[in-house]
UniProtKB/TrEMBL annotation:
This is alpha-L-rhamnosidase. GO terms for biological process: carbohydrate metabolic process. Coiled coil: none annotated. It catalyses: Hydrolysis of terminal non-reducing alpha-L-rhamnose residues in alpha-L-rhamnosides. It comes from Solirubrobacter phytolaccae. Transmembrane segments: none annotated. Residues 605-937 form the Alpha-L-rhamnosidase six-hairpin glycosidase domain. Its EC number is 3.2.1.40. It comes from the Bacteria. Residues 330-493 form the Bacterial alpha-L-rhamnosidase N-terminal domain. One of its GO terms (molecular function) is alpha-L-rhamnosidase activity.
Length: 1186
């Protein structure tokens, strides 16, 4: 039988205040108001957004029955919904007049609870729209005048014996350039197939051997060398040693050199005026060398033709600095800056950087649309003289990417500053050709290659009023893409890391270990003489000699170069590049300090997971760091090499994991727009979005167009994401159907990328065809498209039959017999019912045969552990989770990984490295098991979309404890479970108001389920559903619950020598004081108390409740009560029917002291009555095992 002990304690506080009226029992309280999942958004991009709010209230099983929303513009009510009989408190459509551009609104909500009791109005909150359409923009696109240094008309040249295909050899080239005077500016643009050493007037200016060593296609990247200081009036000599190599297969390849010198307004190109020789005698590179016997160079092709075509990318140019002075002639009420760029931007006003965004405005399919950001710059603009300026980087628009420069070669700016004065008038400062443009310290920037910054070239005051630098006027650009408000969270610096170790592997080289692989850059401080050049090279691992390994970067240089201006300590960090790295190799000078700057899209917090197992926590950390590293402008594959593209297959695999680790709704919603913009006319989704290369229509990659929208809907519950993508999803299915043979997809594609076993591509294609078809069926059901739902249900059934006839055999063998074959067929429902058990057993046998190892790749891994779990082999799933030998997640981490690798064996068991051409150590694809950790191990899954109903069904395996928590649209939800040495399982569950949960508690023979010390089925708010297969199931409403699976009525103490221990259950609680409550000040008051517990039982649980029937859970002062509930240990105090659980013991205790933390929140506008507010609470100590 249950035994209890009770102790009462008084909580008191004194204050002096204005009298307040008595209040009835606490109704629901709305707060946490959101618009399109954003809090008080500035720059909202929708005229008809979705609204949401969270609710708090005492007790259990609380819910909303109706709501009323009022939206106002100034003192005028724009929309009053009236009382709407609906439980909806998330994704509630705004149904008033369309919101206008660049307008600020306020709104509030009140709700009716399950009994019809109405709440107070929420505190009002604001929303402010962006410029919603392109027609709202009066600013013009502007840019620096285009640089005419290019390769047009230049010739690919070689020695006279040359052909476009030739064996490996070295040849020598010379040219004489005559100048009328020493140039003010001179630059030499060139590239070579394969390598070159270039001299100007006898001085070596560049050697490309290292570039060619790292990249067979290094010729595709031209270089520019500033040779101003090396040229003089009169004759000048350019000398080049060129070398052609055999390719990796030992075959002859084309070899040639091409270039153009521009000295002030004079240009000189490669051609037959150059001389050549098969040998290079001593001094051949010097101006005085006699080359009269050398032959004319042979012209192999004009740029744009031959085997090289137009595939040479020009290097980054000095960043344009744009500026304009303006005057604000009245008192300023507010100022807003609306800005975008083709490329990347950083805006300054009066010498101050605007906002904390980096790498803005992001990356889209620029031919269709570009995002724009909104900033509140009221504090930066002043009455009188002002200046606005912007620095531009090439970024994704004009920079070197895989596939070349697809969109443009010259970045551009669009900026519109609106200043509103206190008299109600306003003025605009628009980007136009009155802006001035020049250059400064930022000499080059490239996403792949890094930044070059020369602080000696800083232009002091360029972003201040009154600057006069002799700059040119900007030029106007005509652009036709749509300008849309940014829906994605800003990219920001999220963390700063200090070095773990600093080493000197060789003289002049220092290596900093930040201890973590991540995306971002370094911030350095250095002191030195003007002209001192510091190079920062970034990499993921080290060479055996302790230097930074860079071969897996392929052609990406990942190098930042900073030249000191001298005169004191200088600070530098990059603007328009980012790197994937753990280590930084520094040469050129010693640093005063170096820090790592972690950069990612600043997703709002959403989910957290932890467990009692250190390896599992490491896996979760590696997954999350991989997400941070690859959730920048778009979801990418890798963060370091010359790729970093929006590979659709990677995010298709990772979406259900990524939507937990952060609120990715806005981020992926915007990327899905880019995916739709990139969809082919025939319905095929591309391999990468935005499209820079590669193909489309590939199984598991193109399916991102169906998988990602549905993952967003399931996690966040907003059906708009399905509506926005629905037509594109349908076109994808139509494409698959049209390009299949009897519903069997072609044997093409990437397959189960980087698996250790082989799965046929037509098998994978057909399986994903079925999967996507079923997702579109489900989307149709959600959207009320019933006819479509029936059509896709029928199509799915037909694909399933075709698949089973082709690949499922009578003995349960599926496809090639690979793990991925079984996983996809079982997960997608493609195995006939009578063969499911046989197929599943074959999967389980294969895992066991491999010594509890997996063999899956990018497409099979996301589903593997879920399929094992669902099939009844959770033990195998857990064994794979904690496996630490190859191939496994633990293997990566034991080899030094801090993020998930691209390959299972990026570092092989023998210590050697995998193929550097495809060997990223920061690649989230194989980390796609995260959702199994969070939903299944943590036991917190969205049973209904958006966690309207939660499934609490933890899979414990050999773990001792785990916890998952999410910030749902209804409020925080959490599970935390633990097991004691005797196998008793405790599950703590927090369900937000207006949501429900199904709790499944695993039980052993003889165990019963208790909740907060009572049989679970007898507790208020808990409904027993039944027991099956060793699992007891309960439905619960909102509130906090503690479920315990334990044997009841079996506790006794026997003594042979020492005698019996009497059953003892004792509790004492002291009094706590909150002190003086101050009226008119919003503040949290706290106090600490102590409970002393003695229990000889096998378990004990401490809880608290308010026995009062009035103002339950709130401090009272006569007829007056505080508005907010009293909290104990962070939980509101409930009534006698719903005690608040505080602490539990899993064994006997004597005089155990428990600290009790009391907290009382008081609002700034809350009326307080003179006198003492107090409440007597009842603390209960209970046991299931007396």
């Amino acid at each position: 039988m249950l035994q209890r002990a009770f102790a009462a304690a008084a909580i008191t506080a004194a204050c002096v205040a204005i009298p307040a009226a008595a209040q009835a029992a606490t109704p629901l309280s709305p707060s946490g108001l959101t618009v399109d999942r954003l809090t008080a958004p500035l720059g909202l991009g929708s005229a008809r957004p979705a609204l949401g709010w969270t609710l708090t209230g005492d007790g259990r099983n609380r819910s909303q029955s109706a709501y009323q929303v009022v939206v106002s513009q100034g003192d005028n009510t724009l929309w009053d919904s009236g009382e709407v009989n609906s439980p909806a408190s998330a994704n509630v459509p705004y149904s008033g007049p369309a919101l206008e551009s660049a307008t600020k609104y306020s709104w509030k909500v009140r709700v009716w609870d399950e009994t019809g009791k109405v709440s107070d109005w929420s505190a009002p909150t604001t929303l402010e729209t962006a410029l919603l359409t392109s027609t709202d923009w009066t600013a013009k696109w502007i840019a620096a005048p285009a640089d005419d240094l290019n390769l047009s008309g230049a010739k690919w040249i070689w020695h006279e014996d040359g052909t476009q295909n030739m064996p490996a050899m070295t040849r020598y080239l010379r040219a004489t350039v005559t100048l009328p005077s020493a140039p003010g500016t001179a630059r030499f643009l060139f590239t070579v197939d394969d390598e070159a050493v270039v001299y100007v007037n006898g001085t070596q200016v560049v050697d490309t051997k290292t570039l060619r060593d790292n990249d067979e296609n290094a010729w595709q990247k031209a270089q520019i060398v500033d040779v101003t200081s090396l040229l003089k009036a009169g004759a000048n000599t350019i000398a080049v040693q060129v070398k052609n190599r055999l390719n990796g297969s030992g075959a002859a390849t084309p070899g040639a050199f091409i270039g153009r010198l521009k000295a002030d307004n004079l240009t000189f190109t490669t051609g037959n005026t150059w001389k050549s020789s098969a040998s290079g005698p001593a001094g051949w590179e010097q101006p005085a060398f006699d080359d009269t016997t050398w032959q004319a160079a042979r012209e192999l092709a004009t740029y744009g033709s031959g085997p090289w075509a137009s595939n040479v990318s020009l290097p980054s140019q000095p960043s344009p600095y744009l500026r304009k002075d303006f005057t604000a002639d009245k008192t300023i009420a507010q100022a807003r800056l609306y800005v975008s760029a083709l490329g990347l931007y950083e805006v300054h006003i009066n010498g101050q950087k605007v906002g904390d965004h980096v790498l803005a405005p992001g990356w889209t399919e620029y031919t269709k649309r570009v995002p724009a950001q909104t900033y509140d710059v009221t504090d930066l603009v002043r009455t009188g003289d002002n200046a606005i300026g912007a620095i531009l980087g090439e970024g994704y628009y004009a920079g070197r990417l895989q596939g070349g420069r697809k969109w443009g070669t010259n970045p551009a700016l669009l900026a519109q500053l609106k200043i509103t004065y206190t008299d109600g008038t306003s003025t605009r400062i628009n980007s136009d050709d009155s802006w001035q443009v020049g250059t400064g310290g930022l000499r080059a920037s490239s996403i792949y290659d890094g930044e070059t910054y020369d602080a000696r070239l800083d232009r002091a005051g360029w972003d201040q009023p009154g600057f006069s630098g002799g700059w040119r006027n900007a030029v106007l650009r005509t652009e036709t893409m749509t300008i849309e408000p940014d829906k994605s969270p800003a990219i920001r610096v999220l963390k700063t890391l200090e070095p773990k170790t600093v080493t000197t592997p060789k003289a002049g080289t220092t290596v900093y270990d930040l201890g973590q692989n991540f995306a971002g850059w370094a911030r350095i401080k250095a002191t030195g003489a003007a002209g001192t050049q510091i190079k920062l090279r970034f990499g993921e691992i080290l060479n055996p000699d302790g230097t930074v390994y860079t071969t897996n970067l392929r052609s990406a240089q990942q190098t930042d170069t900073y030249t000191l201006k001298g005169g004191g300590q200088e600070t530098y960090e990059a603007r328009f590049t980012y790197h994937g790295f753990r280590y930084v190799e520094v040469t050129g000078a010693a640093l005063d300090s170096l820090e790592g700057r972690v950069v990612s899209s600043d997703l709002p917090e959403f989910g957290t997971f932890t467990s009692s197992n250190a390896l599992v926590n490491q896996i979760q950390s590696a997954i999350h760091w991989g997400q941070w590293s690859n959730f920048l402008a778009v979801p990418t594959d890798a963060s370091q090499r010359d790729e970093r593209l929006g590979w659709t297959g990677d995010i298709q695999a990772f979406a259900t994991t990524g939507t937990f680790n952060g609120d990715a709704y806005g981020y992926l919603r915007q990327w899905l727009q880019t995916l739709r913009d990139s969809q082919s006319a025939n319905g095929a989704f591309p391999d990468v979005a935005p499209v820079t290369c590669c193909g489309d229509g590939v199984a598991g990659w193109g399916d991102a167009g169906t998988v990602v929208p549905f993952a967003l809907y399931k996690r966040y519950g907003d059906p708009r994401i399905l509506r926005e993508n629905y037509d594109a999803m349908k076109r994808w299915i139509a494409y698959l159907q049209a390009n299949s043979s009897s519903l069997i997809r072609p044997n093409s594609g990437y397959g189960d990328w980087l698996a250790t076993d082989t799965t046929n591509q037509d098998f994978i294609g057909t399986a994903f065809f079925a999967f996507s078809t079923d997702l579109v069926r489900q989307a149709a059901q959600v959207l009320g498209e019933d006819a479509d739902a029936a059509t896709y249900a029928s199509l799915y059934s037909q694909i399933k039959s075709a698949f089973a006839n082709r690949w499922v055999r009578a003995d349960g063998t599926v496809g090639s017999g690979s793990q991925t074959s079984y996983v996809l067929a079982l997960k997608f429902g493609l195995v006939p019912d009578n063969l499911k058990a046989a197929a599943f057993n074959r999967l389980a046998d294969d895992v066991a045969r491999r010594g509890n190892h997996l063999s899956t790749g990018f497409l099979g891994t996301p589903f593997l552990l879920n399929v094992l779990q669902d099939g009844g082999r959770a033990d195998l799933a857990h064994q794979l989770l904690v496996q630490d030998s190859y191939p496994s997640w633990g293997y990566m981490l034991n080899r030094g990984g801090t993020t998930i690798w691209e390959r299972w064996d990026g570092i092989r068991p023998d210590g050697s490295l995998q193929d550097a051409g495809m060997n990223s150590f920061n690649h989230y694809g194989l980390g796609s098991i995260g959702d199994w950790l969070y939903d299944v191990v943590g036991g917190l899954a969205p049973q209904e979309a958006g966690y309207k109903k939660i499934l609490v069904a933890p899979s414990t395996g050999e773990l001792g404890a785990a916890s998952s928590a999410v910030k749902t649209a209804y409020g925080p939800a959490k599970t935390a479970w633990s097991k004691d040495a005797e196998g008793r399982l405790t599950i703590d569950v927090d369900v937000p108001v207006n949501a429900r949960a199904e709790v499944r508690v695993p039980i052993k023979d003889g165990q019963a389920v208790f909740e907060s010390g009572k049989p679970a089925g007898e507790q208020p708010g808990v409904t027993y559903r039944g027991t099956a297969n060793g699992v007891a199931s309960y439905d619960v409403g909102s509130g906090s619950y503690r479920f315990l699976a334990a044997v009841s009525n079996t506790t006794s103490v026997n003594s042979g020598v020492a005698g019996n221990v009497p059953a003892t259950l004792a509790l004492s609680v002291g009094t706590a004081s909150l002190g003086t409550l101050t009226p008119g000040v919003a503040r949290d008051y706290s106090a600490e108390g102590t409970a002393t517990v003695t229990s000889t039982a096998g378990d004990a649980a401490l809880s608290v409740f308010d026995p009062s029937a009035t103002a339950t859970g709130r401090l009272v002062n006569g007829a007056f009560a505080l508005a907010q509930p009293l909290q104990v240990d962070g939980k509101p105090v409930g009534g006698s029917s719903a005690p608040t659980p505080l602490h539990a013991w899993l064994g006997p205790v004597s005089n155990s002291e428990v600290k009790l933390a009391f907290k009382q929140s008081v609002g700034a506008n809350e009326g307080l009555r003179t006198g003492s507010y107090a409440k007597t609470l009842t603390f209960t100590l209970s046991t299931t095992a007396p």
